[in-house]
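Dear Dr. L.,

I hope this message finds you well. Following up on our conversation about the binding site, I have prepared a predicted three-dimensional model of the protein together with magnesium ion. For your records, I am including the exact sequence and ligand specification that went into the calculation, followed by the structure tokens. Please feel free to forward this to your student if that is useful.
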Amino acid sequence: MNKRTIVTLPGDGIGRAVLDAALQVLDAAGFEANYVHADIGWEFWKHEGNPLPQRTIDLLKEYKTGLFGAITSKPKDAAAAELDSKLNGRGLIYSSPIVKLRQLFNLDICIRPCKTYKGNPLNFIRRGTHNQIEEPEINVVIFRQNTEGLYSGVEWSDPPDTILQAFQTHPKFMANYRDVPKSDLSISTRIFTKNATRRILHAAFSHARQYGYRSVTVCEKPNVIRETSGMMYKMAMEMQKEEFPEIELWNTNIDAQIMWLTKNPENYGVIVAGNMFGDIVSDGFAGLIGGLGFACSANLGKDVAVFEPTHGSAPKYADYPVSIVNPIAMITSSVMMLEHLGETVIAGRISEAISKVIEEGKVRTYDMLKMTGNPDVIKQGAASTEEMTRAIIEKL
Ligand code: NAI
Ligand code: MG
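The resulting structure of the complex is given below.
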């Protein structure tokens, strides 16, 4: 059989260390693939004026599957200040390469599972009715629409006249903003399309069916954001009735859902939301199962798929002589890649190895020991990225 080719995109900061860890684990677990390196991130912004070079886009077009570490992003002005002086004056404006990647390949379905590992000292605990300590077992999969909504970048400060005129046709705009000078207006739009909404809903319901989840929860705010959230909930009701009658459809508002995070997170199964609310609710659930060291994700399009931990490049830990960060989020992201590629046996073995290491509790990175990250944590008993990786490999 021809070996698969995976595009590896380490990016910046700790991206390389965690990606190396994942590749070691994939290798040890017997996953056979060719890996091609692709450039992405801050270095390529600084030296080429483009954090997502065309050659990287071409590699993803050709090979379809990407394993991505993390990148560093900085605000517009800071980005301009770090641009190589030979590139000045070309009107280059920094924008996040991961957001661009999602839009370019229409990676519209983002999946973020948050599952409790037994024995993880970072698991959320609370008091029960008889004052006992409860450690709810969380098994939630968040489906976040990844390309539209508030993050799609259709926005203006001091909007052009044509835009302003369009808004002025809306009675609520006139009621609230009639007398605001144009230069005092900033507008960010929240656009949902039926096509993308249908795709994320369908992916969520299908996942619930395939993996035996009882419910799909639409987590939006349809009582207030009537058009976009309202459309998503209405389409979910129709889809549930017509195609997924055995799955319960629940409806929560994003604000209430954040409150329920600590009250009854174990009750939820699949959650589906638009771009920003999906981002928020997935970080919320990630906090209950150990935080950024554990939060993995998949970005799926029709053609291309990119797998990445949800954490960033953690620049303050990037140049440590021995890397201290937790590689588990990156390794579980690569497990999602294996599942996507149909390599379920290898995926299962790696997941089990991770569970065993966490449950045994002998090898823990600094975050699992609730330490503040610094180079001395290794002396104080924390496992390095490499030691955690080796511990997982030993359990395979
Ligand atoms: P971050 O996720 O890089 O780090 C936040 C904190 O979380 C770190 O200081 C560290 O304490 C902890 N942390 C992160 N990953 C960890 C790991 N694997 N193990 C243990 N602890 C870990 O987010 P921050 O500091 O807000 O952003 C740093 C840079 O990363 C920024 O330039 C930001 O734009 C970028 N970023 C990139 C993302 C991506 O590539 N998808 C996502 C989020 C941020
Ligand atoms: Mg986020």
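In brief: The chain has three domains: 1-111+300-396, 124-152+194-288, 155-188.

With kind regards,
A. P.
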